[in-house]
Amino acid sequence: MIVWQGFGFLVALIPVVILLLFSVLGIDKNFKFSEEVTLLATAIIVWLVGRKLNSQPAKILIDPQTNQEVILKNKHTMFWIPMEYYAILFAIGAAAILFKNI
């Protein structure tokens, strides 16, 4: 079972889209380090999208009955981890595969 909030499902979707895109472009067959490039491109895109989505400002509402502030902020997570942190895992995976193949 995959658990996500907001657009956190993009963490799983972005690698698939990049893999299909690189496959259509022929990068997976003609390039020696195609797995590393795929993971690195995934890391960059997941980081940028995650930072953009999770840096949106919060909405502050005031409860009319108690006059207390209520802060509403959208979270974009997968398995309760913010999206942009998955970019670190993708980058580590790319480095691990690179060092294994060298």
Write a concise keyword list for the protein shown above:
102 residues, alpha+beta, 4 helices, 5 strands, 56% helix, elongated
Which regions have little confidence, pLDDT < 50, spanning 5+ residues? none
Fraction of residues in β-strands: 5-15%
Q: In whole angstroms, how far apart are the ends?
A: 36 Å
When the domains are counted, the total is: 1
Number of helices: 4
Question: How many beta strands in the DSSP annotation?
Answer: 5
List the helices and strands and how they pair.
Blueprint: E1 4-5, H1 10-25, H2 27-30, H3 34-54, E2 59-62, E3 69-72, E4 77-78, E5 81-82, H4 86-101
Antiparallel strand pairs: 1-4, 2-3, 4-5
Kindly describe this structure:
- The chain has 102 residues and is an alpha+beta fold.
- The chain has one domain (4-101).
- The chain is 56% helix and 14% strand.
- The protein has four helices and five strands, in the order E-H-H-H-E-E-E-E-H.
- The protein has helices at 10-25, 27-30, 34-54, 86-101; strands at 4-5, 59-62, 69-72, 77-78, 81-82.
- The strands form two sheets. Strands 1-4-5 form a three-stranded antiparallel β-sheet, with no helix packed on it. It has a two-stranded antiparallel sheet with strand order 2-3.
- A hairpin with a 6-residue loop joins strand 2 (59-62) and strand 3 (69-72).
- Helix 1 runs antiparallel to helix 3 (34-54) and helix 3 (34-54) packs antiparallel against helix 4.
- The longest helix is centred in the middle third of the chain and has 21 residues, at 34-54.
- The chain is elongated, with a radius of gyration of 18 Å.
- The mean pLDDT is 89.
